[in-house]
Design a protein that fits this description.
UDP N-Acetylglucosamine Acyltransferase, domain 1, eleven-stranded mixed β-sheet, 17% helix, alpha/beta, 254 residues, disordered C terminus, single chain, 27% strand, 2 domains
Amino acid sequence: MPNISPQAIIEEGAQLARGVRVGPFSYLGPQVRIGPDCTLENNVTILGDTVLGEKNHVFPMAVLGTAPVGSGTVVSCRIGNANAIREHVTIYGGASSPTRIGTDNLLMIDCTVGAGAVVGDHCIFANVTHIGAGTRMADCTHTSGFAAIADGVTVGAYTFIAGYAGVDRDAPCFAILQGSPFRVRGVNTHKLRRCGFGDDDIRALKDAFRELFNGQTEDPDPAGLERLRRQKELNPCVRRLLEALERRSGEGTC
C-alpha cells in the first residue's frame, strides 16, 4: 500500500502503485500515475497527464508536468525508472507530444526541462542546467552547472557540456563542448573509457575529431567529412559520428 502523508493532497483519479511514499504538502493532480516504490518528498507538485515508472525519487519543491505559460491545455509527461529529480527541478509537459525522461538519470538542483523535450538514459544534468523545449538529449549526456541547450537542439550520446556553455545548434556525439556559442574541444575520453569503449575506438575518434573540427567554432569541415567517407575500413564509432552529422546536416544544422 502507498504511504501517504495526511498533509498531502491527492486528487481523485490519481493512481499510486504499491510502495509509493508521498511526503507532506505534496500535490498530485487527477491524471497522475505513480509507479511502484517511488518516493515523493515533501512539497512535490505533479500535474497534467504525468506518468512515473518505478523507483523514482523526487525531492522537495520539484514540479513535474506543469504547462508552459499561456498554453491553456492539459500537457503530458512520461518519466521512466530509477531517476533522481532533485530540489526545485521543473519539468514542463508537452502538448503536441509528451515530454520524455528515460531511465537512471540525475537532474540536479534547479534544472529545467522544456515542453516536448526527450532525454535518454543515464544522463547527468548539473545544477541550473536549462534544456529547451523540443530538445533531444541522447543517452549518457552530461552537463556541468549553468549549461543552456536551446529549443529544438539535438545533443549526441556520450557528450559533455561544460559549465556556462551555450548549445545553440545540434552537437555531435562523443564530444566535449565549451563556450557560448559552443566549440567542440575534443573527444570525451574519460566518459568513453568509463562506459567500456576501447583504446582503438577512442584513438579513431580523436583522429576523426581533428579532421572534422580542429578546435574551430564552425560546423564540421566539409572536406574532412568527404575524406572520412572515402575511407574503406571505417571504425564503427567514427561511422556512427559521421551518420549523425550527415543526418543533421540534411536538415540545415550541424
